[in-house]
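Recap from last week: sequence in, structure out.
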Amino acid sequence: MSDLIFPGVAALLCLGLGGALLARHVVKIVMALSLLQSSTALLFVALGYRNAGGVPLFSLASEGGRMSLPSFQAMAMAILVVSSLFTALLLAFGLLLHRRYGTFDIDEIRRSL
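Predicted structure tokens:
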């Protein structure tokens, strides 16, 4: 596996966290949180990888052969499903905020509370 995967995960994590903390636009915050969740899914896929590992199907595994760990891949898929649902829910809340306050700017919404 490439040695760049873990620094890539750290970069995505920092970009997502920084974007979520520094952005003032609701949609940008949602995008940053989605990026943060994608970095955790990528981390799980990277942790489940094994050098010279086969497909994680037990019926295709050779005797004593190595295979990638399927539990990490299953967790990554679960993270991606929950992430897409979470993103859709946050975007719906963002639209409700826009309908009520007429803006996506967090500072203006706080001032009008």
